[in-house]
Amino acid sequence: MTDRQADAPRALGLDFGTTNSVVALADGQGGAGLVDLQGPHGASPIFRSALCFWEDEQGWNGIASEAGPWAIEEYLQAPLDSRFVQSFKTVAASPLFERTLIFNKPFRFEDLGRLLLQKLVRHAGGALDHRSRRVIVGRPVAFAGARADAALARQRYDLMLREFGTEVHYVYEPLGAAHSYATRLTRAATILVADFGGGTTDFSVVRVAEPGAARRCVPLAAAGVGIAGDRFDQRIVNKLVAPLLGKGTYYRSFGKRLEVPGGYFADVSDWSRLAMMRNRRTLDELRKLHRDAEQPEAIERLIALIENEQGYPLYDAVGTLKRALSDQEEAAFRFEGGGISVEARVRRAEFEAWIADDLARIDAALDRAMTRAGLDAESIDQVFMTGGSSLIPAIRAMFVARFGAERIASGGELTSIAHGLALIGDSADLASWVADDDQA
Hints:
- Helix content is 37%, strand content 28%.
- By secondary structure, the protein is of the alpha+beta class.
- Strands 1, 2, 3, 6, 12 and 13 form a six-stranded mixed beta sheet that branches. A five-stranded mixed beta sheet has the order 16-15-14-21-22.
């Protein structure tokens, strides 16, 4: 080991994802390994980006909490006495989000993120106990949200990570996956990485040199869009569940017939916002609406969904359907809870029609990445698809049509980003990988 390696902080790759978070540590010898995180049913490198809160006099400010798979266990034991929060990464860049109240205590984005990381360290079996480390954090090329502010997200990330490492750098998430995939290549190649996360879809074009080259990877271009797995979930909820909750129905106010505000159903169809609807103001508004509704039973179901904390089981059912449709032409959607019962057969063709506009925007982002790189499809030697939504047949078909099945590779759908970020952190050309707007 050289003096530089001995003195340098150990490089850590952090993939803080909308749905899952993964950590990898560089070994100082050109490799990296995933960090296993303990869960109630065994260890896994995949840690759910979720938090559960409950009132406890011995907890901080009277509130106790858990994260990852432990949060799910706590929630399932007492759903009505706890608050379950996940997918909060989607509000990182939102100027509209300032804080959420949990048992009347305010939590900002950075509070939630810092708490998640503290629990992650605790469940890492000592592997992350030392703060003296270089942290390479993945960030989307384009953050989720209609008015996404990347500078605001950077500020919040900085606050979230201030106790996690002594040296923090930000790298586009698909570049992490590119570096990981490059370790599998035995020749020079120009590759396209397509990263389909929970909140965003990101693309990077990278030129990979021969093994042993002084600089193995050179990033050429990147593009992204705030559409991915969570948006597909929203489409399913809108089609199968929202109509039972009053979407498209009417109420009476001062002699006028008005449609029930669509904002409630936008919140229900967005997991990060549904978790925040269990507050006095929202529930009081809905109870008033219930009194004046033409179909009060529908609004009653909406109130029950929120009061009975049915967000997690609802989206668990949505995820089950989505995964089933990746393997089958038709699958069953089943959800029962909070006074709602939904059972429907869904054809893959129906689901693909629901997400058709989203797929078109993803395809447009891919076009931007290719245009910025100055390359056409024939210039790409390999396409590496990563992230859970890369398994959706309609998405894979888009890439097969453009690049051909023989050039498409996959694997490590949930872990490749963290693995590659750790490798980048241990490389001599770290500065060349840092996101443009994150340069010091």
